């Protein structure tokens, strides 16, 4: 009797969430797979033509798609490193006992509270007008010019804004990890004569592996899927040099009205992200140590 | 047992709430028709920022007069079609929509209602109605023209008549520290409009575009395009980089007198009116290949969504008739929208100077047509703009190479 009842309670709590998850994630996902086998312009009154796997075959030769994939990879690697180095650095800084640690913690986290779109527009102003003014004033026009009209610098601008936004968030996760390290272990190491660097390398880092797993996973998936900052900061320009995959897929579907073809790209995109993040979680999980 | 009952009630309640949330999926979820078949509300979704405020005022007047609520939805323009698509697909489409051109009419074909029977149809200025497969599917917003909008204190149109004099003028302005001509970074202002001229100067621009789509001709092998490449090279050499300039700054610098000419259309007047201009403005033809004819066309068309109840379609048509036939509607169209009416029965007195030039040109009949309405759909933002950005970023790319690049992306877009 009681077992039966437990099951029902379980259902009661899970079902509403499951229904929401299904309507906004699962069902659209399967509909998306279905659409990817059709040639269709996205207007429900216009005909859908079944083309089998043609959409998938076609995208192998799609230079713009491949190029966009490489750009996304470049962006992800750069921001993965920068976000986590900064996040870990901030975390170590604010957990060491210095006076305004709490204030610093708030400040580092603040950018994350601003939405990506607004953030992009703010930085668009800094990188274009702001940098131009600094360049005029200091005469250092090699560095301080409009970064958003330079094909390489525009990508770095995107990485900087994304890191500025995400580093604070990762900092929180690292702080939680650092604070869960028992004080006696650190104290014992200190009495044994380990210096700061040795403690960091041999005690803090191994015990931080669970936090690292989470942080890497989040940064990987966030930066692969980035759209909002991309849209508001560069809108894919100049000359498509920052058109990352999420934006490329949007443009394929709504810009070119190739609904089915764009869906096929989205499915491939999903498979790649899933594969990469799963491999990453598996690898870092293996290095986690138990106390 | 008791708990079980409680649980069951809760569960049913939860399911009912969820079901109610999802139960609104009837065929016309957003229909403005009430149970008696009377229309209470129609909606207008349009793409011109400049006219959204006066249009809302008109909608209020219409509601006072007839009791029918007119809901005006706006958007910033560039993404109009994708927003329209989302609304149409979720059965929340507007009753009156904007059809930019014949390419869009092709996509929206299954939605567009045939307006041929409207009394207004006979009043449309010659060639200005949007027809698709022998049906009238759009009423013109208004006739528009673009070209070199110039500061009359700085520029004498007599001086700029062909390539040599154009380059000479840009050079002179550069020496004086004034910007000769500014484009701006938005896709249509960067390349969309200015790319019209070499097409429009062809004897049969539609035929030319068809051939281009089929790969039978190349822009790089056509004389007008070769010269257009040289024009673009001169613009890059003698003026500020348009990628650093947005629409606001382009107009702002023009108002300040820092820029002598901007490539814009008569719609720019609504923005110039926000400032106290201390000079007069004029609109002159772009002198490609010695061209001295204004380029005029229709920037958008009112279409009616045929997938609605007949009552709502009729109400939408009534509103369009009122908009074009009532005194206040006509007054707003000319004075507030700053539109050159595309109808013969509307008096266009007191137009602003740019619109007046468009109207004069249109009446004289000696004009060249807008070719970009016949470009493959969305090719300007998708393909031509990125290629043009490349050109403006890379000083080593010659005008000839630029035109070859345009050929390439055109082929890519029409594969």
From TrEMBL, chain A:
<feature type="transmembrane region" description="Helical">
    <location>
        <begin position="75"/>
        <end position="95"/>
    </location>
</feature>
<dbReference type="GO" id="GO:0055085">
    <property type="term" value="P:transmembrane transport"/>
</dbReference>
<dbReference type="GO" id="GO:0005886">
    <property type="term" value="C:plasma membrane"/>
</dbReference>
<keyword id="KW-0812">Transmembrane</keyword>
<keyword id="KW-1003">Cell membrane</keyword>
<dbReference type="Pfam" id="PF00528">
    <property type="entry name" value="BPD_transp_1"/>
</dbReference>
<keyword id="KW-0472">Membrane</keyword>
<feature type="transmembrane region" description="Helical">
    <location>
        <begin position="12"/>
        <end position="38"/>
    </location>
</feature>
<keyword id="KW-1133">Transmembrane helix</keyword>
<feature type="domain" description="ABC transmembrane type-1">
    <location>
        <begin position="69"/>
        <end position="280"/>
    </location>
</feature>
<keyword id="KW-0813">Transport</keyword>
<dbReference type="InterPro" id="IPR035906">
    <property type="entry name" value="MetI-like_sf"/>
</dbReference>
<feature type="transmembrane region" description="Helical">
    <location>
        <begin position="203"/>
        <end position="224"/>
    </location>
</feature>
<feature type="transmembrane region" description="Helical">
    <location>
        <begin position="266"/>
        <end position="283"/>
    </location>
</feature>
<dbReference type="InterPro" id="IPR051393">
    <property type="entry name" value="ABC_transporter_permease"/>
</dbReference>
<feature type="transmembrane region" description="Helical">
    <location>
        <begin position="107"/>
        <end position="127"/>
    </location>
</feature>
<comment type="similarity">
    <text>Belongs to the binding-protein-dependent transport system permease family.</text>
</comment>
<feature type="transmembrane region" description="Helical">
    <location>
        <begin position="153"/>
        <end position="176"/>
    </location>
</feature>
<protein>
    <submittedName>
        <fullName>ABC transporter permease</fullName>
    </submittedName>
</protein>
<dbReference type="InterPro" id="IPR000515">
    <property type="entry name" value="MetI-like"/>
</dbReference>
Automatic annotation (TrEMBL), chain B:
<dbReference type="InterPro" id="IPR006059">
    <property type="entry name" value="SBP"/>
</dbReference>
<dbReference type="GO" id="GO:0042956">
    <property type="term" value="P:maltodextrin transmembrane transport"/>
</dbReference>
<protein>
    <submittedName>
        <fullName>ABC transporter substrate-binding protein</fullName>
    </submittedName>
</protein>
<keyword id="KW-0813">Transport</keyword>
<dbReference type="Pfam" id="PF13416">
    <property type="entry name" value="SBP_bac_8"/>
</dbReference>
<comment type="similarity">
    <text>Belongs to the bacterial solute-binding protein 1 family.</text>
</comment>
<keyword id="KW-0732">Signal</keyword>
<dbReference type="GO" id="GO:0015768">
    <property type="term" value="P:maltose transport"/>
</dbReference>
<dbReference type="GO" id="GO:1901982">
    <property type="term" value="F:maltose binding"/>
</dbReference>
<feature type="signal peptide">
    <location>
        <begin position="1"/>
        <end position="19"/>
    </location>
</feature>
<dbReference type="GO" id="GO:0055052">
    <property type="term" value="C:ATP-binding cassette (ABC) transporter complex, substrate-binding subunit-containing"/>
</dbReference>
